Amino acid sequence: xxxxAIMKQAQAMQKDMIKIRDExxxxxxxxxxxxxxxxxxxxxxVLEVKIDTDHVDKDDMDMLQDMIVVALNQAIKKVDDVMxxxxxxxxxxPGLF
Length: 97
Hints:
53% of the residues lie in helices and 19% in strands. It has 2 helices and 3 strands; from the N terminus they run αβββα. It has helices spanning 3-26, 61-87, and strands at residues 28-33, 36-41, 46-51. Helix 1 runs antiparallel to helix 2 (61-87). The radius of gyration is 19 Å and the shape is rod-shaped.
């Protein structure tokens, strides 16, 4: 295979990877932990935090904060899992992303 063909193949692969990344970034992911739920986008930006106030007492704020952290981390992990699944077909190619 000549160098020009390799470069063309690498450019096509990079284009596919960018398309997949853009696709994932447009999706929304939800994480939940007991009475807290969070929604983030594929860029890992927090879009929404919901707290079921029927279960929250002012004395439980430390626990509530911990639940928010758990829910956020769960939603972020979902983004990472989807990205890994979709990008996995490209293998580990240094320098592309």
